[in-house]
């Protein structure tokens, strides 16, 4: 497995590199082929953040955690990944045996979407909390929008797959949503985990036909 480790906001540590390498390589007991892994270790507001991403064939596994100790954050992030691997171990292996052309890396003309995580100023957070759940939040003026702080930006490749595989990929990445292209309808869809009951929801985009006035 090819492993890359990035340190942000604090100096590189050989001890942490070795510890992260040892922990990440534990996935080999679950996977026939783990191609590459990327570990990002960062310090923010006195908390130690660990983000671990592992590519295995068509699948992406991810765990993010933070604590007051970097070694503990690495452990917690890997615990998330291993929990999903135990759940989907057989499905991942079976899928590797029938790799599809549209899942292979290097496919041209793939659709990509940008995902940004941002922080609202404290006064806007208070306003949002006061809005009743059944009503839409008021639009934010451009001047206030400019005061938001982008915490993280990532690019998501939108791949064609059935809904059940999209749910599986979402869980493997330990996310609450996942953007994909429906394998049958070719619509760009979002599958997400409902907070109310733990079930899954599906949002699909589709074109509309203009009607004459």
UniProtKB/TrEMBL annotation:
Keywords: Coiled coil, Cytoplasm, Translation regulation. It holds the Pfam family Ribosom_S30AE_C. Gene3D superfamilies: Ribosome hibernation promotion factor-like (3.30.160.100), Sigma 54 modulation/S30EA ribosomal protein, C-terminal domain (3.30.505.50). It is found in: Cytoplasm. Transmembrane segments: none annotated. Residues 130-154 are annotated as: Disordered. Residues 147-202 form the Sigma 54 modulation/S30EA ribosomal protein C-terminal domain. Interacts with 100S ribosomes. Associates exclusively with 100S ribosomes, which are dimers of 70S ribosomes. Belongs to the HPF/YfiA ribosome-associated protein family. Long HPF subfamily. Required for dimerization of active 70S ribosomes into 100S ribosomes in stationary phase; 100S ribosomes are translationally inactive and sometimes present during exponential growth. NCBIfam families: yfiA. This is Ribosome hibernation promoting factor. It comes from Archangium lansingense. The gene is raiA.
